[in-house]
Design brief:
The chain is of the alpha+beta class. It has 10 helices and 13 strands. The structure holds adenosine-5'-diphosphate and magnesium ion.
């Protein structure tokens, strides 16, 4: 499809088909439109001669005439190129299309955004989260060390490529990046910029934002990767209010399998007061490097085994007496050959209000239930093999009582 030229009027409004597919930009041919964000459209392009592929980001026609948008675009191009992190795509070129739209030619990023992965399959595995958060933290630590704050970290801006050995992560969109010191920033104090679900509270309040805002946003992104849900949900306005007034639900309350060290780091990153967050993105990267890669084991249920020795002894004695009687009667009759094995089914003793249980050894999960030794019974003449009373198949464990979720009461004869 060949696009017609889009001429921008004074207000920046586009009036015609704006697609670039099929057109040439410099030495590159535009192959397909990949996606669109808040500022630009992204196209897949290929070099005419050397056939290398790249991404072309073109300002949306609606904002293409805005001086502020163009300035941000330039900041984005410079910032991502100057950081020099393997986790931030490099810019190769900057220019203007014949219709006046500014464009950036940059490294093509392959893979899937974390937002797409979350939408497809919910929460991610701990090992993957460790890899992703670690690489994003490395990228942002490099940015911060060059005085650049991203300010719009979110799952959609984190792309993960699993095609090579080990995941390779890229951080996109320095479009609202701020270059410290503040003189270079385009955002005035008192103005909110960012994505409500992930931005830091100080960003909501329009205060000065620094590296701590990226720490918060990466924490919010990690929270969603761990739990499959955003830290705060609802309409953007209520999300902004909620994050000013409350903390998200603790991670292990939603997902007990998340290791405590992981939950602790992520929740600290999301502290409402920036001073209470980890001191730097490097500190975050170090903490993440020490995360375990396996989920936490499920909490061991506490076994409380109520023994009722008098009940058990009674049952076994009754079984023995019945066995002796059966055997003796068979011997007396003498006619029919005695069966090789006499099976005696012993009904399980009934359970009633038991006296308080005796002191027990420390409870052990999955400990076998050991019945007390059987009382001595007279040996019946002639000796016959008697199969011991068969245990009843175990019944499902009773549901824990309300308010004692991790205490499982197991009565072996219930
Ligand atoms: N270098 C790239 N390579 C491949 N896809 C990209 C690249 N940059 C952006 N994209 C795609 O375009 C989407 C929007 O890009 P983004 O930089 O966030 O644009 P905007 O600044 O308009 O929000 C991304 O989520 C991603 O899917
Ligand atoms: Mg974007």
């Amino acid at each position: 499809m060949t696009a017609t030229d889009t001429r921008l009027d004074g207000s920046g409004a586009a009036t015609a088909n704006r697609s670039l597919v099929g057109r040439r930009v410099g030495h590159y041919r535009v192959l397909e439109r990949l996606n669109q964000g808040g500022m630009g459209e992204i196209y897949l392009v290929e070099h005419d001669v050397i056939r290398t592929r790249a991404a072309l980001k073109v300002l949306l026609p609606e904002i293409a005439a805005s001086r502020e948008a163009i300035d941000r675009f330039i900041v984005e191009a410079r910032a991502s190129s100057s950081i020099g992190s393997p986790h931030i795509p490099r810019c190769h070129d900057f220019g203007y299309l014949p219709d006046g739209r500014a464009y950036v030619l940059m490294e093509l990023v392959e893979g899937e955004s974390v937002a797409a992965t979350l939408a497809r399959s919910g929460a991610l595995a701990i090992a993957d989260i460790k890899t992703i958060v670690g690489q994003v933290a490395d990228a942002l630590a490099a940015a911060h060390e060059r005085g650049i704050v991203h300010r719009d970290i979110k799952p959609e801006h984190v792309i993960v490529d699993h095609s090579s050995a080990g995941a390779s992560v890229k951080v996109l969109d320095f479009g609202i990046a701020k270059v410290l010191p503040d003189s270079a920033t385009r955002t005035q104090v008192g103005m909110f910029m960012g994505t409500p679900a992930y931005c830091a509270p100080e960003q909501v309040l329009g205060e000065q934002v620094g590296p701590a805002a990226d720490i918060y946003a990466l924490g919010a992104t990690a929270y969603e990767m761990l739990t499959g849900r955003r830290p705060f949900n609802g309409e953007p306005a209520s999300v902004l209010t909620l994050k000013l007034l409350s903390d998200p639900v603790p991670i292990t309350e939603l997902c007990p399998a998340v290791p405590r060290a992981v939950a602790a780091t992520v929740q600290a990153m999301m502290a409402r007061d920036p001073a209470l967050r980890p001191p730097s993105m490097r500190a975050v990267a170090s903490a993440v490097a020490a995360w375990p890669t396996e989920p936490a084991p499920p909490p061991a249920p506490t076994l409380v085994i109520r023994r009722r020795p008098w009940l058990i002894r009674g049952a076994i004695a009754a079984a023995a007496v019945i066995a002796v009687a059966v055997v003796a009667s068979a011997a007396r009759q003498g006619a029919a050959p005695a069966p090789e094995i006499v099976e005696v089914a012993v009904p399980p003793p009934t359970v009633d209000a038991a006296p308080p249980p005796p002191p027990l050894p420390p409870p052990v999960a999955d400990a076998p239930v050991v019945a007390p030794p059987a009382p001595a019974v007279p040996t019946p003449p002639p000796p016959k093999r008697v199969r011991p009373p068969r245990r009843q198949p175990p019944s499902p464990p009773p549901r824990p009582a309300a308010g004692s979720a991790d205490v499982l009461i197991v009565d072996p004869f219930q």
